[in-house]
Design a protein that fits this description.
The protein has 102 residues and is mainly α. The chain has 2 domains: 1-41; 49-101. Helices cover 66% and strands 0% of the residues. It is built from 4 helices and no strands. It is elongated and about 65 Å long.
């Protein structure tokens, strides 16, 4: 079957190099590799995943800020128990989402 249509996608230099690397490793040209990667894969959507990753990112930022303040000597002791509770709840929610897929 003749391939007459183009699909254009914008990617970063790193992404382009990575796709090229993976295509070369698979002994395929970039077009063949991208077609196989796109058409032969099942896509699973996890509702709620974006909210969980956003919460993890926020908690990571909070922890990073505390680390910076501790290194600067602005704080000496931190009660990490509330952080641990949030991390535990978030990881439990993430694991329950992943179990629905598996």
């Amino acid at each position: 079957m003749a391939k007459e249509n183009f699909i254009r996608v914008r990617v970063t230099d790193f992404e382009k190099d990575f796709v090229y690397y993976k295509a070369k490793k698979a002994n395929l040209n970039m077009s063949e590799f991208v077609r196989k990667a796109v058409l032969d894969k099942q896509i699973t959507v996890l509702p709620g995943l974006e909210e969980l990753t956003t919460e993890l990112r926020r908690q990571g930022n909070n922890l990073n800020q505390l680390t910076v303040m501790a290194r600067q000597g602005r704080i000496e002791m931190v009660n990490l128990e509330p952080f641990m509770e949030v991390y535990q709840q978030t990881w439990q929610a993430l694991n329950s989402l992943l179990r629905t897929v598996a």
